[in-house]
Amino acid sequence: MNVRRSAAVLAAVAVFGSAAAPAAFADTASPSPSAKLPSGLYGDADPKFDGVFRQSYALLALDSAGVKPADKAVDWLTGQQCASGGFAAYRADAGEPCDSKTMVDSNSTASAVQALTALGGQDKAVEKSVDWLRSVQNKDGGWGYNPGMDSDANSTGIVIGALTGAGLKPQSVKSQDGNSPYDALPALSMSCGKDGGAFGLADAKSGKLSPNADATAAGVLGAHGKGLVVDEAKKEAAAPKCAKADTAEQAAANGTGYLLKTLADSDDHLMSSLPGAKNMPDLGNTADSVLALAAAGQPEQAQKSAGWLAKNSAQWAEKSGPAAYAQLIFAAHASGMDPRDFGGADLVKQLSAQGPAPQATEKAADEKKDSDDGGVSIWWIIGVGMVAGIGIGFLYSGNKKKQQL
């Protein structure tokens, strides 16, 4: 999660090289001067490492806010799919078939499934992707970033969200050894002592697990069978108690306790654990934690952390791009806040501006063009109506609603 700024992706980089580099770097990278980005793609940064991921996040976030994305934005995403059903981070020439060198991965594929399922009308694409995800499920029931990599909480969590969105019960999706993703998650949970019950992420070299907030948020979300769009929790659940994580449910309880303590100890937000990021707030992982806490029935801390994001996220989102705006929209949704007034910012409008105009806006523009081509401007009609004293409140209201979409 956190726009793939996780150690799982860093591990993928160590194994496979720059083709699997995390999107955190992509968000700040400019495309080469000769590169022309597709018109349906959200964001203007180099999509090499995160094109499918940020597109999926953007489409899903807009849909959650009641906005219907442009057809060409959806077409761009479906056009990235390989014949196998898997998605790579980005394919510059989607007209060329995927081959053994195409770096398909579970995270891009699962995020695409969540978006396409929510948008509807993409049953064949979703079915192919789900089949691919099932074909690369590890023996322990989980998923790694790329096929063949060890299971990690981030990848397993986002795949669970995709399976749930596609109408499957994660506990029924089993590997050849008979394990479901809920069997894999407890093994990725750490001790209640010095590790605080967090989910761990493996070091790229040693493979040793270390407590990780991003992995914990993903693990908690997945253990509750939730995707990225989480409804606000209406009732505060009992404080979780840490115990041996022999089930996914207990692992989620342990991880929830870890997040609650970590957030409470640092002014309701997380701090970055990336090298060279000392004393730097981690807004993406904080947003992810809001989703996890809402899924775990902890609305009080979810609302506090979302409130902190509302006050401190503007510059980060502007710099980071579409996926960051999407994460904030998800956090607003999960905490019961208004994404159109998030600390004074209209996140939906800001995200919409990162890509092709949504369908409603396109329709409004076409209607205006049609009236202009007919020789009579709609604004001339409205002006006459005002002079004549005709009530035009309904016209103004209709146009205002279109502008807000």
Q: For the terminal residues, how far apart are their CA atoms?
A: 27 Å
Annotated CATH architecture of the largest domain: Alpha/alpha barrel
Strand content: under 5%
Helical content, roughly?
40-55%
Count of distinct strands:
6
Strand order of the largest sheet: 1-2
Summed up, the helix count is 18
Largest sheet: 2 strands, antiparallel
What Rg is obtained from the alpha carbons, in whole angstroms?
Answer: 22 Å
What is the mean predicted local confidence, pLDDT?
85
- Structural domain tally: 2
Low-confidence stretches: 3-28, 362-405
Secondary-structure-based class equals mainly alpha
- Oligomeric state as shown: single chain
Shape: globular
CATH topology label of the largest domain: Glycosyltransferase
Assigned CATH class of the largest domain = Mainly Alpha
